[in-house]
Specification:
Elements: H1 9-13, E1 36-40, E2 43-47, H2 58-72, H3 75-82, H4 86-99, H5 107-121, H6 140-148, H7 163-175, H8 206-218, E3 234-238, E4 244-248, H9 256-271, H10 276-291, H11 294-306, E5 312-320, E6 331-339, H12 341-352, H13 354-360, E7 375-387, E8 396-399, H14 403-409, E9 411-416, H15 417-426, H16 432-436, H17 440-465, H18 484-500, H19 503-507, H20 517-529, H21 545-560, E10 567-572, E11 575-580, H22 583-603, H23 606-616, H24 622-635, E12 640-644, E13 647-653, E14 656-663, H25 668-678
Parallel strand pairs: 2-12, 7-9
Antiparallel strand pairs: 1-2, 3-4, 5-6, 6-7, 8-9, 10-11, 13-14
Helix pairs in contact: 2-9, 9-10, 10-11, 12-17, 17-18, 17-20, 18-21, 18-22, 20-21, 21-22, 21-23
This protein binds zinc ion.
Length: 685
């Protein structure tokens, strides 16, 4: 669970100073390379650049290429996991976009295309962040026309279904607000499983699921020190006798068609691996996809985390559990990347000093790690994204997730520099900081130090934050249930926030002076108190774990610092601004809260977690919410961003690959249609 979608907070207020010229990518100049290629609803689509590509050997390029094909082959899986109707809806959209013979200039058609674009962006019919179902802004009658005037033979029919039946069913799936209303349901007190549209459970209640997995955890043969991630790679259903059974994601099991394709490309990747260690973990991953065995998954992760020598690396598997209301079942995702040697130096310095940071953290000695193991940290250039990482992406990753592997074997921590750079470039002049920043001084800090301090905060969050601390004997993550993700992200954020202001950071050369961290502090607090509200619909509460965590931290510090006026809300011309009066004291508050949050995590204190999250991380002041939305609306900025992948151009000499180059597409819809066709393996249900 230690993966980071600090994601797109960056996107809200980033202004990049020009002191990052050393990172200016080699392809074109900032002026000529268009980062933003599409804009619809609350979303902006960008391209990312893959620099230093030609410094890879041909064999390394081949490796990246094969891994990237493997990254695309799981496309169907994420759609089907998000909701069982998604593949049918996607097939319907594709057929309409491909064959509709009516007017494609009309306002209705444009609205239908907005729906299609949003659907692709979310890998399904629920908002990728908010989890609510969204709807096309057209009438059912018009949708009926779209169906009728497309190639009616090519819709995704189920066996024996005729057009009329199909049209009725698909219209209901798309338009009926009661059908699959919420992807991941999180209101404590109601059944989280039956109220979620996510496709991890079928005909199973929360109580049954909890019972099933607690029995599994207690079964004979389990090593309590090294627990398997039960349930990670399966759907929980009932058989014809009403008994609970898992359908495992593997070749010969659930998603077999797509997994076979993934394995086909992984096999090719193994044949051009950079070294034996890399080859070994790719082959182990193949074993896992064949068997679905969770012990093999752990074995694979150990091999993967120990491979720190290879330049090219990847993530490929059922990994993150954010979408499961029970925090147990993983969505499929993939990233292909290679090391950014220049920028990795920063992360290496942090890693080399990991023990110092752990020893000096403001956390009770009981909950600290005596020995921090190999936090391998690097900055990477992303070359391809797939599954749950596409088109909406993380900007940093810290894996593997199993706590015991992290403790005994360490973890890999990466910052996705080229994605962050694209975000920053896209946001250079969006005007949001000018609108929301309280003073010229704050803006100046942002311009000077915003980009470097943001990057550093992500590094600290990833390299140190998630890896820090230890659980008390016998305590497991699952005790915190639906609050686990929020507490875990808060822990990592607080660790990074506490340390980014430490004199040690300047001493290590990670920031230029004792002022630079303030850019990050200001931005964090402003975002947590105000800016992120823009991403939530009026009347809703905060549900997403990272957003809850940021609200929790900012509001807790605001409240606890009130007596000393650490953070102040200022009103000017009817607008709310945030002013930080005392940065030293704010740092101390971060430290204090880190101590509390770590204790909650280490002791598995569900009631304390619930109290902390529900008090500070969920509710929204409706007046402030409205103000933030209105001020943003005037700026017309998309609150969410995502990416298209670059495309490979493979030059062959007979069967032999002579060279592979990259092309940066400019058409989002085309990439979606191409992928839907080329990487469609699972029959629609
Ligand atoms: Zn994180």
């Amino acid at each position: 669970m230690n993966y980071l979608k600090i994601a797109i907070m960056i996107l809200l207020v980033s202004v990049v100073s020009c002191n990052r010229k050393e990172n200016a990518p080699a392809v074109g100049t900032n002026d000529t390379f268009e980062f933003v290629i599409d804009r619809f609803a609350d979303i902006e689509i960008m391209r990312y650049r893959v620099d230093d590509w030609d410094q890879l050997s041909l064999k390394q390029k081949e490796l990246v290429y094969y891994l990237s094909q493997a990254a695309l082959c799981g496309r169907d899986i994420i759609y089907d996991q998000n909701c069982r109707y998604n593949l049918r809806v996607r097939g319907t959209i594709d057929n309409i976009v491909g064959t509709y013979s009516g007017d494609r200039q009309s306002e209705d058609w444009q609205q239908f295309m907005v729906y299609a674009k949003r659907f692709w962006f979310s890998n399904g019919m629920h908002h990728h962040y908010g989890n609510d179902k969204f709807f096309p802004d057209i009438t059912k009658e018009y949708f009926g026309t779209l169906l009728a005037q497309s190639d009616t033979a090519s819709f995704p029919y189920t066996d024996g279904e005729n057009f009329k039946q199909f049209a009725k069913t698909i219209t209901d799936i798309i338009f009926n607000p009661k059908v699959a209303a919420k992807r991941t349901f999180q209101d404590t007190g109601k059944d989280l499983v039956t109220n979620s549209a996510v496709n991890f459970y079928e005909g199973v209640s929360q109580k049954e699921a909890e019972g099933f997995y607690s029995r599994l955890a207690m079964a004979d043969g389990n090593d309590p020190q090294r627990p398997l991630s039960h349930g990670l790679n399966s759907k929980l259903c009932k058989n014809e006798n009403g008994e609970l059974v898992e359908q495992v994601y593997r070749i010969g099991g659930l998603y077999s068609e797509a997994i076979s394709q993934i394995v086909y490309w992984l096999d090719k990747a193994a044949s051009v691996a950079e070294n034996d260690a890399q080859k070994e973990h790719i082959l182990k991953l193949i074993d896992y996809y064949k068997s679905g065995n969770l012990q093999t998954w752990d074995d694979y992760n150990i091999l993967w985390v120990q491979d720190t020598k290879s330049l090219v690396d990847y993530v490929n598997g059922f990994i993150e559990v954010y979408t499961d209301p029970m925090g147990r079942k993983a969505t499929w995702e993939a990233v292909v990347d290679y090391k950014d040697l220049k920028n990795s130096r920063r992360a290496e310095i942090i890693s080399q000093n990991a023990q110092w940071f752990e020893d000096h953290s403001p956390v009770d000695a009981l909950y600290k790690k005596k020995v921090v193991k190999g936090v391998e940290a690097k900055v990477i250039t992303v070359a391809h994204l797939g599954g749950d990482c596409y088109p909406s992406t993380p900007i940093g990753i810290n894996l593997p997730n199993a706590n015991w592997i992290r403790k005994e074997h360490g973890s890999k921590s990466v910052t996705m520099e080229n994605l962050m750079y694209a975000y920053a470039q896209a946001r250079l002049k969006n005007g949001s900081s000018q609108e929301f920043y309280e003073s010229k001084d704050d803006l100046e800090l942002l311009e000077k130090y915003g980009y470097i301090s943001d990057n550093l905060q992500v590094d600290l969050h990833e390299c140190l934050g998630h890896g820090s601390g230890q659980m008390l004997h016998g305590v497991s993550d699952s005790l915190l249930k639906n609050y686990h993700s929020t507490i875990e992200e808060a822990r990592a954020d607080l660790f990074s926030l506490y340390y980014i202001a430490d004199p040690k950071i300047v001493e290590l050369g990670l920031l230029p002076n004792n002022e630079a961290y303030k850019a990050c502090y200001y931005k964090y607090i402003l975002n947590g108190l105000m800016l992120q509200l823009n991403r939530i619909n009026l009347g809703d509460q905060i549900t997403e774990a990272h957003m809850r965590n940021r609200a929790l931290i900012a509001r807790w510090c605001f409240e606890k610092g009130e007596e000393d006026n650490v953070i102040e809300k200022v009103t000017r011309d009817g607008k709310t601004y945030i002013k930080i009066n005392n940065y030293d004291k704010l740092r101390k508050l971060f430290g204090r809260l880190l101590g509390e949050i770590q204790k909650i995590k280490s002791t598995g204190d569900y009631e304390a977690a619930k109290d902390m999250v529900e008090t500070y991380g969920v509710r929204i002041d409706p007046v402030l919410h409205k103000e933030v939305k209105q001020r943003y609306e005037a700026l017309n900025i998309a609150p969410y961003g995502g990416f298209v992948n670059p495309e490979f151009v493979v030059t062959k000499d007979g069967d032999k690959i002579k060279d592979i180059s990259l092309r940066y597409p400019t058409n989002y819809v085309q990439q979606m249609l191409d992928y839907d066709k080329q990487f469609h393996f699972i029959k629609q249900k």
